[in-house]
Amino acid sequence: MIPLSWYLILAAVLFSVGMFGAISRKNAVAVLISIELMLNAVNINILAFWHYHSQSLGYTEINGLVFAAVVIIAAAAEVAIGLAIIIAVYRLRKTVVASDINVLKG
Amino acid sequence: MLFQEAVMNSTFSLVPLVVFLPILGILLNWLFGKRLGEKGIGSIASLAAGGSFVVSVLLALALLQNHEGAHIPLFTWISVGNLDLSWVFRVDTLSVTMMLVVSGVSTLIHVYSIGYMHEDVRHQGEPKRFRRFFIFMNLFVAAMMILVSADNFLMLFVGWEGVGLCSYLLIGFWFEKGEGGLGNAKAAKKAFITNRIGDFGLLIAIFLIFWNFGTLNFAQVFEMVPSVAQTQPGVLMAITLFMLLGVTGKSAQIPLYVWLPDAMAGPTPVSALIHAATMVTAGVYLMVRTQVMYMAVPGAQQVVAWVGAITALFAGLIALGQFDIKKVLAYSTISQLGFMVAAVGLGAEVAAIFHLTTHAFFKALLFLSAGSVILGMEHGLEAGSHGHGSNHTDGSNHTDGIHHDDPQDMRNMGGIRKKMPITFIVYLIGALALAGIAPFAGFFSKDEILVAANQGNMLIFVVLVVAAFLTAFYMGRQVLMVFFGDARSDAAKHAKESSLLVTVPLMILALLSVLGGGLNFPGVHTLEYWLEHTLEIPHATEFIVPIALGSLAVALVAIFLAYLVYGRKPLASAKAADPLAKPLGVFFRWMNQKFLVDELYQAVVLGPYKKLADFFAYPVDQGVIDGLVNGMGSLTVSLAGALRKLQTGFARTYALSIFVGIIAILVYLLTRI
Amino acid sequence: MTRMIDIYSILPVMIVAGWALLLLVVDLWIPRHRKGITALLAAIGLAIALGFVLASSGNTILGFNQMVVLDGFSSFMQVLFLVSGMVAVALAYDYIQRMNINHGEFYVLMMFSIAGMMLMSQAYNLLMVFLALELLSIPLYVLTGFARTRLESEEASLKYFLLGAFASGFVLYGTALIFSATGQLDFVGIAAVVTAGSANSVLFLIGAALLLVGFGFKIAAVPFQMWTPDVYQGAPTPVTAFMSVAVKAAGFAALMRVFLVLFPSLSEHLTPILWVMAALTMIVGNIVALAQNNIKRMLAYSAIAHAGYILMAFVAFGNGEVVGNTVAATLFYLVAYGLTSFGAWALVIVIEREYGKGILLDDLAGIGKHYPWLGVAMLVFMLSFAGVPLTMGFWGKFYLFRTAVQAGYIGLAIIGLLTSVASAYYYLRVVVYMFMKPGEPKLQINPWVSLVIGVAALAVLLLSLIPWTILELASRAVLLLQ
């Protein structure tokens, strides 16, 4: 059986990768994808822990499952809004490269 | 019985009206005054003051039923830390007595002012200021009512500053007039600044009280006084002496009295109301209110008594050498306030309040009658010069020390008795009352102070007797110079009696000056029993026949002497020297020049102060401090510019900043675990 | 089983959310030139919810298996959110017509966001906190980009969205770590596990730190503040006003609720972090504001600085003796800041000629002469912002500083004092431009906006005289601690 810590480390690594992508990528869509990666890394963490926690308790708690479901829903909502915004920006600037867009600064 | 009690308590809760009615008057005159005309403005203001008087009377009637009075809270004012102050009105026999005096005299003076200011604004060529005058007057009444109805030191201080402000505004009412176009403004400034020094003392006293007592509420402070007096007598001494500094400012005692004579630059009703009858007595009221503190430190009481006695004597001397009709009265006011302060110092608080009350009557009467005389003179001036309407009070023809058309200079008067008979009679009553001739009011109240001095401190007694002698003498001099003899100028020749609006309040005040002694008539002591419910009265006042007769004799002798000097052979012309000038020589000139105290202050205090201020203003402030501040400023601005550059506008930079923040936090936490 | 009491406990939230859904449909039948009706309906919905909040205040209820709580704190915050919402509707009504972005969805989105904030103040479960955070944020991303034809608006929206999503990733990870450490999501359970000492302390601490990052983003604390000036500048001004008041308040609501209930045991580790954050926030906000010419940007930095003052009092969150004062002072400050802020933003709306134009300091010239009442109102707001003694802002700062000093953070209080002195420079500069520079301002004054300005100015003046009335309300808004 795979120990819990492996899952947790996997989640942390995925989260870091997502974080790195969000900081380093210039394209807004790529940033969005990286953020989604972060959210899903968290989901791995939650579900792994929920599973081991339920096993140690001897019965199944519902909270972790619900949590993961809510995260997926929220992530979906974020993606929907995010893509809409990116499209609106694209219509005005014909680009989605975030580093081209800095009218507002200082 | 219950019903009666309910009525009484609801009467007590009327007390906020004594403040709010004048404020209502201000609002009405402010909002609608322009459309109302002079009659309307005057009526509103007078009704507001009169309303306060009616409320005060109701309060007094309720107090007859329940001597203990009441505390009427209005709202919580400041609640910071352990300082918890509420706006509470205190209804007790002392505060109601003051309310009655203030609102009663105010009402009469408001009515008088309708007539007086009608003339004055025209004479000065600014009819539009009529409304402003009444707004200031009502503001004064409101502030004074706050002062006397306060239940804690801070509320009292609000009123104290409020009346100071009104005094400033009203002294400078004709701010563009006076000597060189600045005289009145300077007088107002002088009054304000001198008072600030005193206020500073009061403020320190209040801080010390809060520091050592932990509260500013009168009742709580007074309750703790005995224990503090035992453990920290020095603190109590400091508090009372700093408070005395405040008193010397507001009540014009040595060394801060110098503002009051200059304050006569204000219109005459102002001199009567603020600078004779009410505001200047605030200091006396304060000391009477805090008598518990003074009684706990006999040393402070001694100082107070001496300050009062010396002021009484000193101001009396100066009054003798003045020619301006209002200046004489001003110094007389300082002198009489000295009597009151001395009475407080001698532990005779009732006598002080008694004299305060009678003084309010007869001094207001004297000032208002003097105003009537001045009006008459101004009339005469215009009639005599056939209407070449120049401005007379900013006189610049100052060559021989006499303004030949100055309507306030007594040397220009003479013989007014026949032109203005009503004014003459009421003036005479006021003068006799002030001089201490039985059975007028001043006789009884001054006698009580002398009795207290006789029992307390013989030396002070002597000083006060001399001061009383001087009082009678200079009043005799004034009456003889103004009303007797022949007219010494055109103005006096053509003087004319004032209108009923002016004379009726005079008659009422004259009546009060005659009957005022009845308030605490020997053997009856109404006022004493009345105030007993609020004040501690260590020993009851006695009526000692030899002292009474003696003081009466002193006054009569003084008046007779005045007759010998000024009455038998009146001044020949306006240019003639005072008959005392020759025999007294230099001393008379000193008296005339007010013993050069103003010049002394100028040389010792103001001059060096101004030099110091210049030093701090130019080399220190503009050089060192501004340099530092500007340096800090440009440093900050360049820092701001640098930080702005971090705000690149790229989302990546912002995410990086978040990332850096997280890493910093995590690293920190890892070092801690 | 859902009990009536559960429904009762979140009835106002349900009303706002349900009303918004209905309004979304109703709006389809309201013609474009009649969107005022939508605004009115939105305001009515908010008012009804406000009525229910007031009616249910004073109760303390744990509903839905301890997932939500109704207590004095939540009631106070909800009143703040709902009133802010109504003010924002009043400010937006004329503005979105002038800027030609007159769509009914504006009001609907605002109501959804308010529902999220209200839920945030009631959340008693980390899952609810996350849900509320998303519910309040996502509509705001859209509102920020509501001026679809304006690049500023879209850029602001994109930045806000990307960074907001990034930050909520941290909130989520923090929540997950706390869940890992304790096996619980609801506050009652977590607190019990922590008290029992059976939590994994490292994971718990890191989870708390990550939550702090997420909330720090919402309240714009340095170094998580960088989105604020850009987003405040680019968003439609009524949205900015709404964000600067309500979103900030919601962020503090979450911060206080979560930290005071869950993390007092971690205060030893978290307090130094909060100390540094508060100090940096006050310094950076106030200093960079000095260099701004654009009023919207300047007010954005000022908003950052004010968050710093509140954080200063919050540093003491683990000190049980002063925590009551922290909550009361914070709530008072949010009210003081909210009133002043809405007034100032309303003035920006008045001077904004077209989208993002006419809002430089120079555009203020001459207002004092030609519109004296407007000038006086702005003077009141600026004095209150600067904390000039005896204004409402002064009392707010006074209570915050007092709390910090009581807790022993004198150094922080001194930093706060110095930066607040520096802030007087840029606040008074506004006044100087209005009253001392000649100019011919052309203002678009709408009755609703002037109503907001007038009421805000009067309220600030009045409450400056009697600040303790609000403080007493704030002190009674007790936060339910486990």
Describe the secondary structure blueprint for this structure.
The complex is a heterotrimer of chains A (106), B (673) and C (482).
Chain A: H1 4-24, H2 28-57, H3 63-93
Chain B: H1 2-12, H2 17-65, E1 70-80, E2 83-91, H3 93-124, H4 130-149, H5 153-171, H6 183-213, H7 218-231, H8 233-250, H9 259-262, H10 268-277, H11 282-289, H12 291-296, H13 298-320, H14 325-345, H15 349-384, H16 416-419, H17 421-435, H18 441-456, H19 458-483, H20 490-493, H21 500-515, H22 526-531, H23 545-567, H24 581-584, H25 586-592, H26 597-646, H27 651-672
Chain C: H1 4-9, H2 11-26, H3 35-56, E1 61-63, E2 68-70, H4 72-98, H5 105-122, H6 126-144, H7 151-182, H8 187-196, H9 201-219, H10 227-234, H11 237-262, H12 267-290, H13 295-314, H14 323-351, H15 367-370, H16 372-386, H17 392-406, H18 410-436, H19 447-465, H20 467-476
Antiparallel strand pairs in C: 1-2
Helix pairs in contact in C: 2-3, 2-5, 3-4, 4-5, 4-11, 4-14, 5-6, 5-11, 6-7, 6-11, 7-9, 7-10, 9-11, 10-11, 10-13, 11-13, 11-14, 12-13, 12-18, 13-14, 13-17, 13-18, 14-16, 14-17, 14-19, 14-20, 16-18, 16-19, 17-18, 17-19, 19-20
Number of strands of chain A: 0
Write down the secondary-structure element order of chain A.
HHH
Run of helices and strands of chain C: HHHEEHHHHHHHHHHHHHHHHH
Could you tell me how far the N terminus lies from the C terminus of chain C, measured between alpha carbons in angstroms? 24 Å
Task: Report strand % of chain A.
Answer: under 5%
Neighbour order of strands in the largest sheet of chain C:
1-2
For the largest beta-sheet of chain A, the strand count, sense and barrel status come to:
none
Helicity range of chain C: over 70%
Give the overall pLDDT of chain A as a whole number: 90
CATH topology of chain A: Helix Hairpins
Total strand segments of chain C = 2
Pair with the most extensive interface? A-C, 45 and 41 residues
The CATH class of chain A is identified as: Mainly Alpha
Supply Rg of chain C: 21 Å
What is the typical, i.e. mean, pLDDT of chain C?
Answer: 92
Q: Which geometry of chain A do the CA atoms define? A: elongated
